[in-house]
Predict the structure.
Amino acid sequence: MSNNKIYVTRSSMPDMSEYVEEIASIFQSHLLTNMGPKHDELASNLTDYLEVEHISLFSNGHMALELCLQALSLQGEVITTPFTFASTTHAIVRSGLTPVFCDIDPDTYTIDVNKIEALITDKTCAIVPVHVYGNLCDTEAIDKIAKKYNLKVIYDAAHAFGVKRNGVGAGSFGDASMFSFHATKVFNTVEGGAVCYSNPAIGDKLHCLRNFGILDQETVSDVGANAKMNEFQAAMGLCNLRHIEEEIAKRKAVCDRYRKHLENKEGIKLCTIPSDVTHNYAYFPVVFDETKLGKTRNDIFTSLAKENIFARKYFYPLVQDYDCYKDRYSSDSTPTAKYIANRVLTLPLYADLPLEEVDRICRIILQA
Ligand code: T4K
């Protein structure tokens, strides 16, 4: 057994010297936070990179999503999926809204657009779909439904940094999209997040909400929070953004290697990337069918862990089964999500994961 522990991911970081150079001016200016020059430079660079009209930066993705829901002054029910990280549902609930869970598509694991309309009531105000693993939702179908029923659409694009369909970036769909820049993401600012939108009025509200609802020194208009991205976070972002193409290319090489070993194997299902999509290779999810393999996902998880390889069951359990929600919801209402959550493993994936380790991981999986 190798003593080297391999985790599901490992944060990408610039050379220390690059970061030190980037933060030198912060030591001169003593401007550490509250939308300083690094923050503004990063916002501008990200607007260009993501090809979006407007962007607001936040201390983390969760606060970005939560404050975005508040900025849109929503009330009532929000249709979303349970196959996601805790943040998506928590942001809805913490904003005083009621999540209504829709099942997922069996191939992309994003919201099943054929099941949305049946969940719409006179209380529905919005849809919060998730581009899970960087797989884009069926944005066209969602758009049609939203227009028909006059609903807002806020995408949880936490995983979709840099993903495009037909050249259109993930930040351009719906009323707004939230990205996460957490340490575990394709692009990180240590912690961080953003909301992209085309209506500048959303930006005015977001800027106010992320800074305690303060409009100016003598006016507090909203019950806001503190969700500002600080200068050291922004500096990390400026460095990491310079290397983003190399980061994504290296991740692609890791994914290609996984595919070479695991594609077309009985009982093993991989996500396919549509030809019109430019992906970011954020995650490598694999669904294991125990009826064909004779082994469960948990058996494979354990076989890997015995070799110091720590894959993750993203996203198990489903949100409805969390202690804080299970009294109100049942995961039986979303059978496809339940099926996938019980069988999926996301395999280790990061830019500098040696390809020989990918070979070893696949050997263990195939032997199991
Ligand atoms: N929506 C969705 C769909 C999301 O997936 C997330 C976050 C959000 C919203 C909210 O965005 P943020 O508020 O986080 O910006 C991790 C991340 O903490 C979380 O950001 C992410 N989703 C989620 C899918 O994964 P955990 O609890 O699994 O993290 P943890 O600490 O177990 O880390 C996983 C592995 O990453 C570690 O084994 C090693 C590696 N790692 C971790 C950290 C913290 C590093 O290499 N460096 C690090 O600094 O949630």
User: Anything to note?
Assistant: The mean pLDDT is 97.
